[in-house]
Amino acid sequence: MKKPYIHSALSMMKNSKHDINPLLHKVNQTPHATQLKLELIDAKDTTVTLKLPFGEHLIGDPFKRIMHGGAISTLMDTVCGAAVFQAQGNFQSMATLDLRVDHMKPGEPDADVYATADCYRLTNTVAFIRATAYTKDINDPIATAVASFMRSNVEFPVR
Amino acid sequence: MNLFNKINELKSSNDYESLVSLVPYAKTIGVETSLVGDHIVSTLPYIESNIGNHAIPALHGGAVAGFMEVAAIFHLMWTGELKQMPKVIDFSIDYLRTGHAETSYSQCEIIRLGRRVALCNIKVWQDDINKPFALARGHFLLSSNEPFEAKP
After folding, report:
1. In Å, how far are A60, A85, B39, B125, B150 from A25, measured between CA atoms?
2. B3/A61 touch (CB, cutoff 8 Å), yes or no
């Protein structure tokens, strides 16, 4: 049987949260996240941090050895989705409506990139997320993102 | 040697097929290029590693974003007389439908090509060009050698 929608952010706050959603460990199991070797670093309240390890296959400019903007977009999309799972406290699916990434500066050569996302608002149907990507210091970001997701009551497939 | 010069070399020899081999990320997600008239057209054949939800199955939103960004950069490189590699400033994607497990096609439109900045719209579709599954717009920095001088 399908689970019903969570009817308000308030009821959600009573049940879940403040703990890592255990299913988040599986967020990196989709084929694309596996290929990019995304790792869960931390999660609490409504925020999640993921790591995108540097790899030859993610290079955008082989001469400068910096990551392609598209790889950063994938990291942002995934971390924003993960923040929704964390805020929901379950694994109900969502679909990206809109994702905007602002690139503040190029990443460093051969450097891993971290991204922290905060699902700051959850309505019955839509989730709103902000995210920041950085190599060492979150206060010196390489990119920021805003995203909105359409929520659904279908379970996200977890293997 | 830099990526810009290398791509310009391919451009002068009309070797559009080798573009992808210069950009490892483009190869990772499996982008292919072809030439239609004077324009470079990027396509994304289905590969399993681009899947984000295997129940539907649907392409990962990030893979779609990456594909659109690669398509825009190749299009700008091939069309404009640029002095350096375009660098993405911002990229905004609207997801309209599910990207299914099949080949995706792209179409880029340069809205403005300035001295320092270009604005590009990108559309991706699968079986019907009139039913795109995502639209994107992005600003690209074309020249960082002409900084804006702030008055003291």
Report:
1. 28, 11, 43, 32, 47
2. yes
Q: Is B60 on the interface with A (CB under 8 A)?
A: yes
- Is the CB of residue B93 less than 8 Å away from at least one CB of chain A? yes
**Residue B26, SS3 per DSSP:** helix
Looking at beta carbons, which residues of chain A come within 8 Å of B31?
Answer: none
pLDDT tens digits, residue range B104-136? 999 999 999 988 899 999 999 999 999 999 999
CB contact under 8 A, B66 and A71: yes
Binary contact (B25, A58; C-beta < 8 A): yes
Chain B residue at shortest CA distance from A79: B62
What tokens were used for A115? Answer: 């991204």
Could you tell me the CA-to-CA distances from B144 to A101, A105, B57, B86 in Å, in that order? 20, 12, 41, 10
**Sorting pLDDT into bands at 50, 70 and 90, what band is A67?**
very high
Terminal-to-terminal C-alpha distance of chain A: 18
pTM given for the model? 0.88
> Domains along chain A?
9-155 (3.10.129.10)
**Domain positions in chain B:** 3-141
Alpha-carbon distance A9 to nearest alpha carbon in chain B (angstroms): 25
What fold is seen in the domain B3-141? Thiol Ester Dehydrase; Chain A (3.10.129)
Contact residues, chain A, for B60 at CB < 8 Å = 30-33, 74, 77-78
DSSP per-residue letters across A113-125: EEEEEEEEEE-SS
ipTM: 0.87
Residues 11-40 of A with CB under 8 A from B: 30-36
